Automatic annotation (TrEMBL):
Name under which the protein is recorded: Putative hydrolase
Alphabetical UniProt keywords: Hydrolase
SUPFAM superfamilies in UniProt: HAD-like
Pfam families (UniProt xref): Hydrolase_3
GO cellular component, one term: cytosol
Length: 268
């Protein structure tokens, strides 16, 4: 613990995942202690960022109200200074790549969703899509050709056999699947990750990885846990993340973030 506390003294920016980290995904519950955390961090001059698989449309009002300094959205594919709204980085799919993905998903009898910077569309809205996407984004409009008019940063698979989907050779060297729900996986660039997005912020600020702490719980946080100077996993985190974490804290409902920052002596 002594080494961890030494690392904590170097922290100048903290990134937070949203679902089951800042707030409970299924119920939307966010403890009042989160507001206290952000207030104290701002008072101490420690910057804050949101690092999420969601796009800007999915950053709910109560999270925006925390006034973070940066948004690392869509698993690092879109990075924005939240104060100035300046876009620091974006990594979009080409139309050709989108069409290759769609062709593959159709052979697999899987529906899909397009993720743009501040909007989403699905190829089909049904019970399967509702169970996966509903708790995060609510009901989405259907438009299987949305990529023709919008920049696409990410796609999602949507099927009741998502665990059986396997990328064909022509796609395996371009994209990867990151499961986040029994019915859905994020489709992200092969080298894309939250870590790539957070690196853009550190570069903008002239900071190093050792100056960064992050909180997370899911498989899309793996690269970030390998990259950050200090990583904290929520109690409910995926086993892989628990193994990578420098520190494991309590659940959202039990004020896990506040407890961790107090234990690390970053805030009182």
């Amino acid at each position: 613990m002594e080494k961890i506390l030494e690392k904590a003294q170097k922290i100048k920016i903290i990134f937070f995942d949203i679902d089951d980290t800042l707030r409970v995904k299924d119920s939307g519950f966010m403890p009042e202690s989160i507001n206290e955390v952000f207030k104290k961090l701002h008072e101490k001059g420690i910057m804050t960022g949101i690092a999420t698989g969601r796009n800007l449309f999915g950053v709910v009002p109560e999270v925006r109200a925390l006034k973070p300094d940066y948004y690392v959205a869509i698993n690092g594919a879109y990075v924005e200074n939240a104060c100035t709204q300046k876009v620091l980085y974006k990594n979009t799919f080409s139309k050709d790549l989108v069409e290759e993905i769609i062709a593959w998903l159709r052979t697999e009898q899987s529906e899909y969703s397009f993720v743009a910077a501040d909007s989403l569309r699905v190829s089909k809205w049904d019970k399967i899509a509702s169970e996966a996407i509903g708790p995060v984004y609510a009901e989405l409009k259907e438009n299987p050709d949305y990529y023709q008019t919008e920049e696409i940063y990410q796609m999602l698979t949507i099927s009741d056999h998502d665990d059986q989907l396997k990328l064909p050779e022509n796609l395996a060297d371009k994209i990867r699947l990151v499961r986040w729900h029994p019915n859905s996986s994020d489709i992200v660039p092969l080298e894309g990750s939250k870590a790539i997005g957070c690196q853009q912020v550190l570069q903008e600020l002239g900071l190093k990885a050792e100056n960064m702490l992050n909180f997370g719980d899911g498989l899309n946080d793996r690269e970030l846990f390998d990259f950050a100077g200090l990583s904290v996993a929520m109690k409910v985190s995926h086993p892989e993340l628990l193994e990578k974490a420098d520190y494991i804290t309590d659940s959202v409902e039990n004020d896990g973030i506040l407890k961790a920052l107090q234990a690390l002596k970053i805030i009182d």
